[in-house]
Amino acid sequence: MDRRERSARLTDQLRGQSCGAVAYDVRLFCAVHDIFTYPDIIVTCGPHQFLDMRRDTITDATAIVEVLSPSTMNYDRAEKFRYYRSLPSFQEYLLLAQDAVRAEHYVRQPDGAWLFREFLSLKNEIELNSIGCRLKLDSLYERVEFDAGN
Questions:
Q1: CB contact set of 18 (below 8 Å; sequence gap of 6+)
Q2: For the chain, which residues make up each domain, given as ranges?
Q3: Quick one: pLDDT at residue 6?
Q4: Separation CA 18–CA 131 (nearest Å)
Q5: Rounded CA gap, 92 and 70, in Å?
Q6: At residue 32, what are phi and psi to the nearest 5 degrees?
Q7: How far apart are CA 64 and CA 75, in angstroms?
Q8: How many helices (H) and strands (E) does the chain have?
């Protein structure tokens, strides 16, 4: 399942709410670090905040989803996450492994600390409270084929 399909799962649940998901052709600007990133899926709540009226560059995000690959997983977990945490609107980070059923979910706490939970079963559901969604891992991993060794 590609990011457009995963985004569609979120979009279906967000229909009628103030939050919306975008999954392609949009970059995220983190002003504190003066850096642009390209998340797999960005969820914003309320009107999009664009950089200099550029419709391809968002400056806020409530939740971000990244699909981990061997070449990007360290960057996604460390530097990219540090950039995202600098966004005042950012509340939840979901990392999905592509080589196994594994989701890493980070939630900003009221004191600014981040709570980490890991999900390893297709039976698991992940509550994304900041955007009012519940994602089932069996749905996110639908049609994903893993190598026999995993």
A1: 45, 46
A2: 3-140
A3: 66
A4: 9
A5: 22
A6: -55, -35
A7: 14
A8: 4, 12
Range list of β-strands (E), the chain = 19-22, 27-30, 35-37, 41-45, 50-51, 54-58, 63-68, 92-97, 103-108, 114-119, 125-128, 133-136
In whole angstroms, what is the distance from residue 14 CA to residue 21 CA? 8
pTM: 0.91
CB 123 within 8 A of CB 4: no
d(CA 87, CA 133): 21
Question: Angle 42-58-45 (CA atoms, 0-180°, nearest 5)?
Answer: 55
Task: Judge contact between 51 and 29, C-beta under 8 A.
Answer: yes
Q: Which amino acid is at 72?
A: T
> What separation, in Å, do the N-terminal and C-terminal C-alpha atoms of the chain show?
18
Token digits for 15? 């229909």
For the chain, 150 residues long, the average pLDDT of each consecutive 10-residue run is 66 84 88 95 89 87 94 96 97 95 97 98 96 92 78
Domain 3-140 has CATH 3.90.190.20: no
